[in-house]
Amino acid sequence: MSKTKRQKSAPVKPAAASAASNVKPAKGKKTKRAPEPLESEALSDAPLLETASAPPDDAPLGTLSASAGTDSGAALETPPAPKHETLRLPKGAFLVFRKSGGLHFSTREVVIYPDGRVAYDARGVPQKDYNRLRRALNDGQMLSLRKLLDQTNFWRAETTGEQNPDAFAYEIVARLGQRANEIQVFDGSTPEPLKPLIERLTPLLPHE
């Protein structure tokens, strides 16, 4: 009885492995190496980046959260109030009038000389420049203004009231002969007798 010999079969290589071994990189192209994973120690030593937190949904438009770089403890500085200078009558002048205040603070002044010439600076003008001044009031208007000072009892009037926020203040200094007076009144508390005088002097102020 003959014995059959068992043939040993050659081991079969996986198809994927054989296919990968047969693939050759294309000429002129470099194969990219996969990035190496970061070690846990390197990550632990890396500094943390600060991120700005987003403002809440109900925050008003135009505002920034304190974490976005603004200093919550720093208060907004308000501009200092303009320094108030006492109104004085320039040499040789008859009357000086100033209106100041308002929502956007402003100051306007007019100096009236006895012949009706006017200057728009409470300090007046040098004597050499006097003849260059414009004559805004004629003789009749100057006479009417002097009478108005008497009719409004200006020579005996006194400063009254207080200036409200965003309101105007009116200052008048005048001298006629031996009589002289200076007063300051405010919007909302101007005495009724003085209102016609304020209304008469206001149009003489320079335009803003």
How would you describe this structure to a colleague?
The protein has a domain of 110 residues: Mago nashi (Mago nashi protein, 2-Layer Sandwich). 16% of the residues lie in helices and 17% in strands. It contains four helices and six strands, in the order ααββββαββα. Strands 4-3-2-1-5-6 form a six-stranded antiparallel β-sheet, with no helix packed on it. The longest helix has 13 residues. It is globular, with a radius of gyration of 45 Å.
**Helix/strand structural class:** alpha+beta
Q: Based on the coordinates given, report the CATH architecture of the domain at 95-204.
A: 2-Layer Sandwich
Q: Count the strands?
A: 6
**Proportion of strand residues:** 15-25%
Mean pLDDT: 75
Query: How far is it from the N-terminal to the C-terminal residue, by CA?
Result: 135 Å
Can you describe this structure in just a few lines?
The protein is α+β, with helices and mostly antiparallel strands. It is built from 4 helices and 6 strands. The protein has a domain at 95-204: Mago nashi (Mago nashi protein, 2-Layer Sandwich), CATH 3.30.1560.10.
